[in-house]
Amino acid sequence: MTDLTGLRLSYTRAELRRADLNPDPLAQFQGWLDEAIGAGLREPYALSLATADAEGRPSVRTVLLRGAEERGLTFYTNYDSHKGRDLGVNPRAEVLFHWPEHERQVRAYGPVERVPEEESAAYFRARPRQSQLAAHASDPQSAPIQDRGVLEAKFAELQARYPEGTPVPKPDFWGGYRVRVQEWEFWQGRRNRMHDRFRYVREGEGEGWRIERLMP
Ligand SMILES: Cc1cc2nc3c(=O)[nH]c(=O)nc-3n(C[C@H](O)[C@H](O)[C@H](O)COP(=O)(O)O)c2cc1C
What we know:
It comes from Deinococcus budaensis. The protein is α+β, with helices and mostly antiparallel strands. Helix content is 25%, strand content 31%. Strands 1, 2, 3, 4, 5, 6, 7, 8, 9 and 10 form a 10-stranded antiparallel β-sheet that branches. The site of flavin mononucleotide (FMN) has 16 residues, from strand 2, strand 4 and helix 2.
């Protein structure tokens, strides 16, 4: 394998000063995400989602951000998946965005709740038909299967059950989660590993945010 110890970059693209920060971390995040989308980065709305089970065993995977609002960061998945089971017993998560081309990462932590059924159904209806069928086919998500044929057969069966033109109902086991962010961290890479980091911590429900600079 390639020797990794000599592979390194210096981060020189930008700096982040306290004066640059939006007092509202959601607006700060939206600004950075918009820059990433505007720059044409590939799937900058993909995030790493870390959860843990009742024993504290962590697990992490990528999901797509489908909304970033005051009420939380939204993603959609299968409620019976590994992550769904984790969130059932331990409804808290940390999420991470990494935009290497911009030498930035954003972390957000908070309690997690399910998106109301009607809202999940509305989003499900807006998805491409093949994705709707795949959501049905991949159940229970994260469970072992014999081979790919099992999945393909389920998909074909679903195509027959819901021919073109008939609506595909949202499965009960599929829907959204929302991370109600209580803590944000914005990281901007700097030269010589002297990075800029700022954390926003919620002062209290309905109150403002305390901002602190962190050691890199
Ligand atoms: C770029 C990318 C986007 C993904 N988006 C989603 C998503 O929005 N929802 C989802 O359930 N899985 C998504 N996945 C698959 C998950 O990473 C994961 O494999 C799956 O949800 C099962 O995770 P679990 O077993 O930890 O529950 C995505 C994977 C990648 C690489």
